[in-house]
Amino acid sequence: MKRLSTIMIALIICACSGNQTKNQQTDATIHCHINGVVHDRPESSKLLLYIGVDGNIAGSSQPYCEIKISDSQFSYDLYLDEPQYCELVFEDEFKNGYWQAIDFIADDGTINMNLYPTEEVGKTDIEGPASTNEYQSYKVELRKLQDATNEVRNKLKAEGKTYTEEYSSLITQIEALENNSPKQKQLIEQIQAMTEEQTYAPETLAERKRYQAERLAKMLEIVTGEPSTARLAMLAKQMKYKLPPQELVDAFNNIYAVKMPDNAITKFCLRQIEGFQLQIGAQYIDFEAPDLDGQMHKLSDMIKDAELVLLDLWASWCGPCRTASIEMIPLYDKYHNKGFQIIGVARESGSTKAMEKAVKQDGYKWPQLVELDDRANIWAKYGCNNAAGRRILFDAQGKIIAFDPTIEQLTAEVEKRINK
To answer: Could you say which DSSP state residue 299 is in?
Structure first.
C-alpha cells in the first residue's frame, strides 16, 4: 500500500460525509468525482484508497487516502495529472487479513459505484468516463471465462476428479500429523515440490490448461488493441506478482513501452520486468537511499572495496527477515574486516520508528538504509515487490551469486571466497 513515486499526484481531496479537505487543486488535468453506495455492509465504515498498480501490492504501507462511509454512502474528489489505475478496499476486510480490492480507472468526470459484500462481488457495478467503462468491460469478459471454468471444476470436484491419489494421500497424512512437526514439514515440502501433473487428476489438469490458453488468448486480444490506459492497466495487473507469459511481455515491449513511455503504469511494468528477469550471473542494480539520519547513500559507493556483498532487504514487521538477519551477525563479525560487507535496507511505512527499535533490539552491526513508502522502488527492482524482503549475494565484480541463501550456504560462500 504505497504512495505514488512515478506520477505527480496534484492533490487528493476526500469528501468524507460531505467535508472536503482544504487547498483544493484547481489546475490538475484530471478531476474524478466518485459517488458510491454500499449495499448490505453495515459493519463497514471506511474505505481505503490506493493509487497505481503497485499501490496495494505489498500490503505493508499506508493507503493514500481514507474515505468515510456515512449512511451507506461515500463520495470524494480525486485530482491527478493523468488517468490512473486505483483500488478501494474496505477497512474492516483489511483488518481481518483478507480483502477483495475494487479496482477501476480514475479519469476526468464522475464515477458511480454500487459496492457489495465480498461473496457478492459479481454484483459490483462501476460506471463512469469512457476509460472507466472500458476497463470494467474487460473485467467482465475475463470474469465470464472464470465463471465457465469454475462450473466445470466444481463438477469435477463433485465427481472426485480434482486431485491425484498421490496428492490426496499426502494431504490426508499431513492433516493427521501434529502441526509443525518435523514429519509434517517434510510432507509439506514434498507437496510444494510436486508438479501440476503430480497434483491434479487428468480431467482437472486438462481443464486448467484449456482455461489458461483461453485466458491468454483473451488477454492478448485485449492488450493488442488500440493502446489505452485501460488496456495498459489490464496488462500491468498480470505483472504484479510474477512475470506473465512471454507473449504479454512482448506486447508490452512492442506497444506500450513505445507508444506510452511516460505513463506511470508503463514505468511500473518496466520495473517489474527488470526485477523479475534478474537472475544469477546478472549485474546487481544500483540505487540511492537514505540512512536513519536522512543522509543519502549510493549502494555502489558503499561496497566499492568489498570482496563479497550481501544486500539484505528486510522490514521491521517481517519476522522471518529479522531472524535471517540476526543469524548473519556472527558471520559478519568474523569476516567484515576481511572483505565481507552487508548492506541492510529496511522497507518501512510512514516513519522509521519501528525500524530504529528493531535495529537496536536485534543488534545489526552493518550499515542500514531506509526504503520509506517505496520511494526508490528498490523491492520492485529486485523482483520482490509483493514480499517483505530478499537477500541478494554478489561478488566484487557485482555479479549476483545467490538469492536468499540460507545461513549455511552463505557461510560456505564467504569462507570459499574470503579465505583464499
So the answer is: H
* Secondary structure (DSSP) of 114-164: EE--GGGGGG-EEE-SHHHHHHHHHHHHHHHHHHHHHHHHHHHHHTT-SB-
Residue 407 makes CB contacts below 8 A (sequence gap 6+) with 324, 327, 328, 331
- What cell numbers appear for 33 in the block? 468525482
| Nearest to 18, CA basis, from 71, 82, 64 | 71
Predicted confidence at residue 419, as pLDDT, reads 67
Closest CA to 363 of 407, 409, 322, 311: 322
Whether the pLDDT of residue 7 is over 80: the answer is no
- Report the predicted TM-score, pTM, of the whole model to 2 decimal places: 0.77
Written as nine digits, the cell of 174 is: 499431513
Q: Is 190 exposed, middle or buried (0-12, 13-18, 19+ CB in 10 A)?
A: middle
- pLDDT tens digits along 114-130: 999 988 888 999 999 99
Q: Which of 211, 278, 276, 268 is nearest to 242 (CA)?
A: 276
For the chain, report the end-to-end CA distance as a whole number of angstroms: 45
User: Which residues touch 20 (CB under 8 Å, ≥6 apart)?
Assistant: 13, 14, 77
**What's the rounded Cα separation, in Å, for the pair 131 and 105?**
7
What's the rounded Cα separation, in Å, for the pair 209 and 231?
24
Closest CA to 328 of 387, 410, 417: 410
Closest CA to 75 of 41, 116, 108, 47: 47
Domains of the chain: 11-128 (2.60.40), 288-418 (3.40.30.10)
The arithmetic mean of pLDDT across residues 346-354, rounded, is: 88
Asked if 101 and 89 touch (Cβ cutoff 8 Å), the reply is: yes
Contact 401, 311 (CB under 8 A): no
For residue range 13-28, list pLDDT tens digits in order.
333 433 333 334 557 8
Q: Give SS3 for 393.
A: strand
